[in-house]
Task: structure prediction
Amino acid sequence: MFTGIVEEVGEVLSFEGMKLTIHAPEVTRDLRESESICVAGACLTVVAREEGEFTVEVIPETVSRTNLGELAVGGRINLERSLAEGGRIGGHMVQGHVDGVAEVSAVENDADSIVVRFQADESIMRYIVPKGFITVDGTSLTVVDRDDDGFSVAIIPYTYDHTTIAERSVGTKVNIEVDVTAKYVEQMARPYLEKLLADHAGS
Result:
């Protein structure tokens, strides 16, 4: 479990086969093999660790659902260690299970903040509500507004300077995890809604 508060922006050292190695001296201080780590929003398992760097395995399923397949040596990536028991939850409860990718459609200045707009398909948009939680490349953010085609978030200067969001331009793809609460509510409500529709159709 994670909170969406990025601890460090690491640098890709290599990505060969399924092995992704990242330079990250801050998060590796107490990181151990077999532990989970959130890499650009995706929960991955540490398979090797050396001084100042660690390696995770990225399986084809993860590549197909995220933007990790676009990583190159020298690329920067958001990182967060798993939540420690008793730790503060500064963002929201993040699983590290990426639901899909969205594309940056606009970046605009708004006083002291930066508003970034994303286009996403219906499989993501159905769970997004204004002022709700959203995770973008592992960063916990609040939705400003939404319409049928996409949604926007407002980024404070600190977040802009301490994550990879500043490197995202129009056309860039980002990993999205929606608030899991919405998915649970939908699944629990579906049988009742289906029965209601069936009863209405039969009346």
Observations:
- The longest strand covers residues 100-110.
- The chain has four helices and twelve strands.
- The chain has a mean pLDDT of 93.
